[in-house]
Amino acid sequence: MAENRDFMNRRLHSLLGVVPIGIFLIQHLTVNFFATRGAEAFNAAAHFMESLPYRIFLEIFIIFLPILFHAIYGLYIVFQGKSNTTRFGFFRNWMFLIQRITGVYLLIFIAWHVWQTRVQASFGADVNYDMMADILSSPFMLVFYIIGVLSATFHFSNGLWSFLVSWGITVTPRSQRIATYATAVIFVALSVVGMSALLSFINPDLANM
């Protein structure tokens, strides 16, 4: 019974990492990418997201609760300390390790990002281009956000590979190898989007070079 529950929890953990959390990540990076078109474009995109009907319901049940479960159960997996060396080779074992490290980092990063944006907004602050530009004007915060964005894009991309395996979609070595290339492309593409947005907040001309 306990093994079945653990199996189902791992399946749910994997599924939530792709839907809805992965979809939210792509949407969030897309909104941030509007910063490459200037402050006015970013503010318009951010305002549109904030004005969505049932926004609080969507944030709680589609974003925060899935992330909370994914994070808590992810920590449980991390501290279980089970290795996958017998199932996969050297490269995949490194990906497995980095997945754990980025997961822990993201727990800290997301909590801090929510505090700086959503929580501050509840106190009356405007979540806009100027807020992000002010946050990223600190070299420490810039590095913190760069690592956070890269951790998020890697964690999602590598987690997508694991999802395909654990859900029986890629079962052969060839299909898993193709999935490795595909998820690597996804990681690079999302990272370019995220880095372009960050650069736009600190130097609009640099992002458009």
Automatic annotation (TrEMBL):
Keywords: Heme, Iron, Membrane, Metal-binding, Transmembrane, Transmembrane helix. SUPFAM superfamilies: Fumarate reductase respiratory complex transmembrane subunits. InterPro entries: Cytochrome_b-558, SQR/QFR_C/D, Succ_DH_cyt_b558_Firmicute, SuccDH_FuR_B_TM-su. It is found in: Membrane. It comes from the Bacteria. The chain crosses the membrane at residues 12-36, 56-79, 91-115, 135-157, 178-202. This is Succinate dehydrogenase cytochrome b558 subunit. It comes from Salibacterium lacus.
